[in-house]
UniProtKB/TrEMBL annotation:
Provenance organism: Trametes cubensis
One BP annotation, GO: protein transport
Protein known as: OPT oligopeptide transporter
InterPro entries, sorted: Oligpept_transpt (IPR004648), OPT (IPR004813)
Places the protein is found: Membrane
Segments of skewed composition (Basic and acidic residues): 1-10, 26-38
Region (Disordered): 1-38
Any one Gene Ontology cellular component term annotated for this protein: membrane
Membrane topology: Multi-pass membrane protein
UniProt keyword list: Membrane, Peptide transport, Protein transport, Transmembrane, Transmembrane helix, Transport
Primary location group: membrane
NCBIfam families recorded: OPT_sfam
């Protein structure tokens, strides 16, 4: 092979890239958007085999972005095709309906990107095989189904499948306040609340998308699978075969713990020995049913549950901090409850609902006027609502985590912030960033920053307009602007943590508290603050991750922009229509404060959380959360959390460099620890000890002692397990769990008891 001077550099780069079976290297004039001087390297000489994959250990967490993911790009591959549009629209509608169904289920399941990816791959390859490819048909079927159109479909479908917080708020208004929004207003509001976050995400690209440190651990397995399915070579042939074997294995296994043998979702030797006789055992060790217990020493064999901890994907540092938080949580939650902290000893152990003084469900309508404001005389008669002790601790920890996140980012990553935002450099899209994936993207036309600014302003205007309903403001315009600004600032800190650790800090409780003081006595306004104070940051993170996915797979930025817009529009329509159907047909089940077993039936535990917060904080903020009141620590937890990172940072600075003390202080991620102390009092908890074992074996043992296997198969294993379990869960949801309207219960036996929870830890009669 003859090599020109320019090609020598290309060859040197190519041979250093792991998992690269073929590579087209391109150079581009920085002043032009056209591809100039494309040099092609002999791809056969660069074919990667099993022996070529490096056995070096990945040292830094972000190095997986270049050690596991190839930077290969073929600019000739079409991304915007008939297949991409047809399947993108169809799967967007499908996944938005499915994710809405899961929102109203007791099991905290989601529609993952990997589920979208697998369905898109099967359908895309089928379309290529079935459709003619000559004459006019070549425009509809332009060659094999490729990675770029596949990624476009995934971005559309996953954007649509991200259930908008606006939909959940609209459902809560319907269920608990009998406020039914006009369909057009509701749909536009859902769309606008998402697009505000998208506008902010675009402005943060130079800080949270382009650089290597922003590697988004949760997306490594997605990209690894995409490249394995579409890139050629002996290695990827083996990886594809491995993927489908693991996919099939979990597909045929997962239905067993999910349906006939639910005991396998939470195996606890202590619970089996107790057999539901003692509440203390249930509270501490139970984990198989919704709101049962916090799952100490409970192990799960259901990957649907285990995948919530992302043990194969999250860096061990993130997992270690989360498990450390849980360990503290086991002690804190138990001691607080049994010492009657927050006067919650006579209430149930776990619930997000509101309770009255006798432990029954709180009648919120009995204290409100027809205008949904507090009637003082009615409140005096009914009394103040109460939270369960575990839910109070959880809300405090969420706020601890938020305060710690802000300070953590500023202390540990000030130089990165200064580099990205100093002199308003974030408004410029052309920056000197050495990330190899970003360098490959320079050949494509970028989305101008003013597009994102225009989208942000237009969406904010639509959101303000839709907040006016039947002659009154659900949330005043000035408040929409205020909380959008607050959420935008927080998105910078939260986005950095998500990009570098894979972990997302929740801010909804903090927004509830703040809104309670901004809108005292107005529960509907407090609930609506979630759209702009909480949803904006959440949607910003979701959109940033998809922008990174586009960078990893070399999708032209303007096509990524269009795909996200299309997915949001389709998702908004189907989120709303499916939500209306579920709420109309299952009202009684959705307002039940305790919930049901993990399988079948419907549950409103997510919606109840918004409602209880809006009543307790919106209508009764001063009575419950002002200083000296029953739950004032929830509000002040944000300020206490600001202190958490400081001691560790000081120790790191003062201790001898590279000493055990300095490295240990740096290893602690205080916002993750703080939040996970209160992570357990929700839904089911049978999976966390399985996550601990699997996470250690993957991110510590395999990464250090089996680096070749780790690079080739670790993230692919995660993709296969997630994909197979998602597919079978979808089938079961409609076949037997009642998503189609009729649930079919499996006959009771020892592994599926009639009068006990699924882990045999609590009586259900």
């Amino acid at each position: 092979m003859s090599v020109t001077p320019n090609e020598k550099e290309a060859t040197a780069v190519a041979t250093e890239l792991p998992h690269t079976d073929s590579l087209s290297y391109t150079e581009k004039d920085g002043k032009s958007d056209d591809i100039d001087g494309k040099q092609t390297v002999d791809v056969e000489s660069l074919s990667v085999t099993d022996e070529d994959v490096g056995s070096t250990i990945i040292q830094k967490d972000e190095d997986v972005a270049v050690e596991v993911i190839s930077v290969e790009d073929d600019p000739e591959l079409p991304a915007f095709t008939f297949r991409a549009v047809f399947l993108g629209i169809g799967l967007s509608a499908f996944t938005s309906v499915l994710s809405t169904i899961y929102t109203f289920k007791p099991q905290n399941a989601t529609v993952s990107q990997l589920f979208c990816l697998i369905i898109a791959y099967v359908l895309g390859t089928a379309m290529h095989s079935i459709m003619p490819s000559t004459g006019f048909w070549r425009y509809l079927n332009p060659g094999p189904f490729n990675i770029k159109e596949h990624t476009v479909i995934v971005i559309m479908a996953s954007t649509a499948s991200t259930v908008a917080i606006a939909m959940e708020i609209i459902a809560a208004l319907d269920l608990f306040y009998n406020i039914k929004l006009n369909a057009a207003i509701a749909i536009f509001q859902i769309f606008a609340s998402q697009m505000i976050g998208y506008g902010i995400a675009g402005l943060l690209r130079t800080f949270l998308v382009y650089p290597t440190y922003a590697f988004y651990p949760n997306y490594i397995s997605v990209v690894n699978l995409l490249q394995s399915l579409h890139f050629g070579g002996v290695l990827n042939h083996k990886k594809r075969r491995y993927f489908w074997i693991v996919f099939a294995a979990i597909f045929f296994w997962e239905w067993i713990p999910q349906y006939p043998f639910p005991l396998l979702t939470a195996i606890s030797v202590i619970c089996l020995a107790d057999n539901g006789r003692h509440k203390f055992v249930r509270n501490l060790f139970g984990a198989g049913s919704s709101n049962e217990g916090i799952g100490l020493f409970s192990f799960s064999t259901s990957w649907t549950l285990i995948s919530q901890g992302t043990p194969l994907v999250w860096p061990w540092r993130t997992q270690f901090n989360s498990f450390l938080g849980m360990a503290i949580g086991y002690i804190t939650l138990t001691l607080a409850y049994y010492n009657n902290a927050f006067d919650g000893r006579n209430l149930v152990w776990m619930s997000t609902a509101l309770f009255d003084s006798q432990g029954g469900s709180y009648n919120q309508t009995a204290i409100l006027t027809p205008e949904n404001t507090v009637d003082p005389s009615k409140l005096a008669s009914v009394g103040l609502p109460r939270y369960t002790t575990t839910y109070v601790i959880s809300q405090m920890c969420y706020n601890f985590g938020l305060g710690a996140a802000i300070v953590h980012v500023f202390l540990w990553h000030w130089s990165d912030l200064k580099k990205a935002f100093g002199g308003m450099r974030f408004l410029k899209s052309s920056q000197d960033i050495d990330d190899p994936h970003y360098q490959q993207m320079k050949k494509y036309k970028e989305v101008p920053q003013w597009w994102y600014l225009l989208l942000f302003v237009a969406s904010l205007a639509i959101g303000i307009g839709c907040s006016y309903n039947h002659g009154e403001w659900l949330l005043p315009a000035w408040s929409v602007i205020l909380f959008t600004f607050i959420s935008s600032v927080l998105a910078v800190c939260l986005g950095f943590i998500a990009a570098t650790t894979g972990f997302q800090i929740q801010i909804k409780h903090a927004m509830h508290i703040l809104s309670a003081f901004v809108h005292p006595g107005k529960p509907v306004a407090v609930m609506y603050v979630n759209l702009y104070g909480n949803s904006t940051a959440y949607q910003t993170l979701a959109m940033l991750q998809d922008l990174k996915l586009g960078q990893y797979t070399k999708i032209p930025p303007r096509i990524t922009f269009a795909a996200q817009l299309a997915g949001s529009i389709i998702g908004s329509i189907f989120n709303y229509t499916m939500m209306i159907s579920i709420v109309s047909n299952n009202r009684e089940a959705l307002i039940d404060p305790i919930g049901t077993r993990i399988v079948s039936t419907w549950s409103g535990w997510i919606i109840q959380g918004y409602n209880s917060s809006s009543v307790a904080m919106g209508a009764l903020g001063k009575e419950l959360f002002a200083y000296g009141k029953p739950y004032y620590l929830i509000a002040f937890a944000i300020f206490i959390g600001l202190i958490f990172p400081v001691p560790f940072w000081v120790v790191h600075k003062l201790a001898r460099k590279d000493s055990l003390l300095a490295r240990g202080a740096e290893y602690i991620i205080t916002p993750v620890v703080a939040l996970y102390v209160g992570w357990l009092p929700y839904s089911v908890n049978g999976q966390w000890w399985s996550c601990l074992v699997i996470g250690y074996m993957s991110q510590v043992w395999a990464r250090s002692h089996r680096p070749k296997w780790f690079k080739k198969y670790n993230y692919l294993t995660s993709a296969a397990l997630d994909g197979g379990s998602q597919v079978i869960l979808f089938i079961l949801s409609f076949a037997v769990f009642g998503a189609s309207g009729n649930a079919i219960d499996f006959p009771n036996w020892w592994g599926n008891p009639a009068n006990l929870s699924v882990d045999r830890c609590a009586l259900t009669d």
